Amino acid sequence: MLVRPEELPPSRSISPFTLMCTWAAPSLRRPGARGHRGLLRPHVTQARKLLQQATAAAARDGAKDRVAYYDASAAWREAELEDKQMARQLATAALSASDGLDVKELAALAFARIGDNGAARK
What we know:
Shape: flat
Helix content: 55-70%
Radius of gyration: 15 Å
Strand content: under 5%
Number of helices: 6
């Protein structure tokens, strides 16, 4: 269950991707909301840019596990946005770069969301 930003404790920092999901989730659950995806486009574009910047910074720092986590996070986002090819590509790259539990969980969520249950169970 997603939490509204105003419900978070003040000491907790949240990522731009989490904010985007928190903002978008209620509107995606409304009947007929699938036809209004264009309203999310600016927010999705911004989330993609921010995650690319974070990934580039982590790669420069040599933080392979962090890069894999960001890729897995991006895979989950793309799966939610129904870009199956990109989600599969990012999840596969994340799993090949790290065997961390957080990476495995996000990749499994992405695979499950795109309907690849075999890969999700690995």
